[in-house]
Amino acid sequence: MKVEIEQATKLVTVAEMAALEKAADAAGHSYATMMEWAGRGVAESILVRYANLGVVTVLTGPGNNGGDGLVCARYLRAAGVPVRVYLWKRRTEPAHDYQQHYAKIRALQIPTAHADDDGDFTTLRAWLAET
Fold first, then answer.
1. How distant, in Å, are the alpha carbons of 12, 60, 61 from that of 15?
2. pTM of this prediction?
């Protein structure tokens, strides 16, 4: 059964989004909190749109959207969805503000793989074939 969701599409430029994030930060909403909200929203949208999810592979890059992906993976796992995270050019040291999100998925034992350790993309190919 396909679920139809009606919603308005809002598009902003990169500069407009940066200004919105800066204003939200100035209003007391940390970037980590905004990542939390965005990741949860993506996970909720996935759960509403797709019934009977199999394994979900979340691809995360180095930017803030990658942090959103880490949060999304955590919420999908909490909903009982088998999930794993493939990291591309993403640093995971504690010095980075999104590291707390990475630490949370590791604590939940969500499988992760890093592109730096997957030179021929064998893991990525296998995970995508199973997704």
1. 8, 22, 20
2. 0.79
CA distances, 108 to each of 45, 50, 75, 80, 103 (Å): 21, 23, 11, 12, 9
Rounded Cα distance, 38 and 51, in Å: 21
List the strands of the sheet with 112-114, edge to edge: 56-60, 83-87, 112-114
pLDDT band at 22 (very low <50, low <70, confident <90, very high): confident
Task: Give the C-alpha separation, 126 to 19, whole Å.
Answer: 39
Q: Tell me the C-alpha distance between 128 and 123, whole Å.
A: 8
Give phi and psi for 30, each to the nearest 5.
-70, 160
Question: Taking a C-beta distance cutoff of 8 angstroms, is the pair 59, 65 a contact?
Answer: no
Give me the residue label for tokens 């939200």.
24
Question: Residue 114 in 3-state DSSP?
Answer: strand
Answer for the pair 35, 68: CB distance below 8 angstroms, yes or no. Answer: yes
- What pLDDT score was predicted for residue 91? 59
